[in-house]
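To: structure subgroup
Subject: Chain for Friday's discussion

All,

I'm putting the inputs and outputs inline so they're searchable in the archive.
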Amino acid sequence: MAPAARAQIVPPSDSAPIDQGSPSQIVQIETVRVIETEAGLQILLDGEAVSEASIVETVFGNTLILEIANAQLVPGAALRQESLTEEIELLTVSSFDTDSVRIQIVGKTAVPIVAAEPGETGLILEIIGAIAPPVTTDPDETVLEDAIAEEAPPIAAPEEGLRLVVTAARRPTPELETSATVEVVTAEDLEQQRPLIRTVPDALQTLPGVTINRLGLLSGSVNIRGVTGERIGLLVDGERRPNLEFGPDFGSVDPFRVERIEVLQGPASSIYGADSFGGVVNVITKLPEPDQPFTVSSETYGGGFSEFNTNLELSGPNYVLGATYRTAGDARDGSGNLIPPDGTEYTVFDLYGVGRYDINDQSRLILRLDRYRQDDADLNGFPSPPFLEARNKFRQTNRYSLAYINDDLAGSTELEVRAYYQRSRRQSETLSQFTVPFPVPTDITVPTSDLTDTESVGLTGIATTAIGDATLTYGYDFSQDTSRFEDRVADTTSPSAQRDFHGFFAQSIYNVTDDWTLTGGARLDFFTTESADQSDDLSAVTFNVGSVYEITDGLLARVNFAQGVRPPSLLFLFGSAADGTFFAPTRGQVQSNPDLSPERANNIDIGLDYTRGDFTAGLVYFRNSISDFQGFESFTPAPGPPGPPGPPPPSTRVVNKDVLIQGVQLNAAYEFIPGLSLAGNLTFADSEDQSGRPLNQLEVFPTTALMRLSYARDRVFGLLQSRIYAGQGDVVLEDNNIGPGSEGAVVFDLSLGYQVASATQLTFTVENLFDTPYAYPTSNFDAPGARVLFGVNTSF
């Protein structure tokens, strides 16, 4: 259902229009009250300078959405009330992001009429009735023109049914019209969990259908329903981040700048290409606005295991600049032992900047600059015999991107063109030990030091056009990744490897009726991979189709079929060393295979979503059938020429196999009283190859569950959560034999916060509250014990 251009907001006849000029700073809304009047209801927003804040308003069906820009709700000030009058079904007041407040008023049969005027302690919004939804979008018919800012897209409060997701269709789409499974980490979630979030994957580990294959406290890959590594795509504000050795570098995205994360689960190759064979993680960061006042914000926390994290961010009209420093010492597990093999210390320094230039009212340019540097991070989950230890000596990423956005091209089309350049350099070091049997059995320790340099360029063009009751999004993607590998011990350099992607796509949403929506799309991809005198070419067509149907008020049924395709990676095809081998987590040394076939997936999601009052729930069944899955098997290499002592040859190689992954996801949430809520989720997945053999340890998704009790009222917020991991059961271990995977565990986390002033908040957090000894799922290395962190957040 398309939104109308303007809401019907008028001031009371005896009041003057409110001055909606840009405020000099972000205003604090300290309390929200609803009182009855003879004319109807009044919403009282109390706070200094609130009456001077800008208001953007939108109509969506019978819903009036007001966004107060440059404003913040103090913790606990959010409001939700139902069935207020015979005409008003629902009223919510909530934070949308760090600098805006969203008010949503739902009429039972018509759009509410609201009058705005300044009050003694803030802003008064008076609900004085309701009218039929407007059928015209002529701005001349809108009253209070001077009091309302330029129209913004109708993005509802994150916890409400009208919120938008952008990842499922590459454009903002109401969740009610999204047939795929999309999980969202909101700004409120991030605010409450911030000290627990060292990297983006930390923010995802409690979502249904997601676990993290950790190689270290800062290194790891996202596992979505048993699919991981290079099969998971990473986007930052819709821009592709390239794959490296074992997937995109999630650790290079500064967690302090993140405002929202969306996870599209299941194959998304028909939307984003081969990088998204198993799903997509889209990280949405703070973007500059023309009316953004100059603001300085800082977040700092530290404590156990010598951990210290601090971020300083400057923002103003059309720019955001920030820097982050993070460091930690050696951690100990729940039994008090130093986490092997060599500790967990690390140092990270990030710089980022975003600038915006408005060409005119419809079009703008956005320039992004990012620099990430990580030093001396141990890869605790990496080593397997004969390797004793592994570590990242350093990882450095420099990225530059430019976007052109036009919201109204030729009167009916939105256009985005994005280009980027990224260079990622990283040096890893390992230490292995093996025995030379003759003339006398002797243990020999061999070090390695490898430097990999990857340069990536990309270009994307996306257009969205409304065609009657349908919306069509279409475009073109190009990306090229070039990698060079240097063995710094042997002083040798492998030939460069290059991979080119070209993709043409189209995605559509069609509202058949008010209760029934159809979705679908297709994509044509061309892939080219080459290294020295070896090359591989592939073209593929993938598609998706889905439907959403509202069975009754609050109960939705959805079904989505999506295909995936993924050519073999450079690493699996050619290896990283001159002999075609490479080192893999939990596998050791592995032989590449230049004859691999591309992977193909056919996935179906069937789901039910229910919302009634303060209770929400969802159930999803998924079935993913993958042909030519690139896995591992044992093999005996041909004998090589005699030479000096060295590591034994690999006993594992990459092969194709057919795999079936299926399972269920369940989530539910209930708000007992305003500010106090209980939420939980459960994921069960089963996977095996065509012979009935279990998958690699990093690919077997353990049953996971979460229970979270949260409270936010007045100046206080708190969170107590329980992360529950079941044992993996039988998996294929590093010796290619079947054995038990990671064990089960129950881990509690606690986070408390208190707002001591309007712009200052103190936090107290304990990760692993009861000092439980446990190992991270899938990677099976020891997790830290109880870690106490103190923090302070401020802005001015």
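Points worth raising on Friday:
The CA atoms of residues 462 and 580 lie 38 Å apart.
The chain has four helices and 49 strands.

D.
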